[in-house]
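Tokens for chain A. Residues wanted.
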């Protein structure tokens, strides 16, 4: 692969890593292997540290394709837990509220899911990288400051739910760029007159790219140095 001229790397991002961690690790190894001081490396769509899965990395002239890749639809699998919420909508923060779930059945979940298909409005979580007057929303939220974010237009193209482990709900969702799956889980719980927290998330598809074709960070490092 010609990393300097331009390559697209499909990486299976591990849990606990930020997207920047992956970019930084691969950039360091590329510079070390090629004996250069600088090389363009970027990712096409952030994955939270608590999410795993497909991260599209571009090097060299392929970084010009990043905007195109970001605009691609994405597919995720994961799990949300009904009856509890956290301020971050996931397990980055601890549970702070409990809600009833006895009234929730398969019929209610099915009818509620239909309300989320198509073009909808979604408010990003306050624990997100959204900019507010030049500062990241999550920095303000972690500092205990009030954060207000405006709703954005997104599209959920498909949604399947599995209730076998209720009150945990397994899902597969295909959506447009800018969709926060944490917010989807939170909003779904609210629509059920309860609450929900995202407890597991994995990106499996980004446009034409699939997690089945991705390699681990260590595997890419071996390829770089081979």
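Reply:
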């Amino acid at each position: 692969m010609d990393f300097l001229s331009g390559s697209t790397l499909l990486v299976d991002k591990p849990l606990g890593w930020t997207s920047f961690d992956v970019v930084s690790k691969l950039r360091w190894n590329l510079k070390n292997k090629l004996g250069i001081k600088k090389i363009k490396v970027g990712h096409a769509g952030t994955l939270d540290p608590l999410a795993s899965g497909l991260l599209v990395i571009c090097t060299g002239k392929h970084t010009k394709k990043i905007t195109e890749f970001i605009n691609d639809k994405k597919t995720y699998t994961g799990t949300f837990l009904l009856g509890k919420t956290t301020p971050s909508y996931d397990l980055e923060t601890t549970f702070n509220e409990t809600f009833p779930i006895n009234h929730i059945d398969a019929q209610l979940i099915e009818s509620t899911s239909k309300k989320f298909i198509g073009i909808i409005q979604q408010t990003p979580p306050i624990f997100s990288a959204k900019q507010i007057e030049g500062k990241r929303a999550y920095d303000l939220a972690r500092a205990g400051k009030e954060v207000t974010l405006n709703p954005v237009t997104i599209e959920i193209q498909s949604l399947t739910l599995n209730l076998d482990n209720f009150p945990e709900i397994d899902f597969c969702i295909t959506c447009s760029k800018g969709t926060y799956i944490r917010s989807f889980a939170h909003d779904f719980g609210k629509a059920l007159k309860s609450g929900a927290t995202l407890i597991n998330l994995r990106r499996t598809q980004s446009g034409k790219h699939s997690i089945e074709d991705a390699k681990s960070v260590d595997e890419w490092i071996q390829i770089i140095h081979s």
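The CA atoms of residues 29 and 200 lie 30 Å apart. Helices lie at 19-34, 66-70, 106-114, 137-142, 181-191, 217-225.
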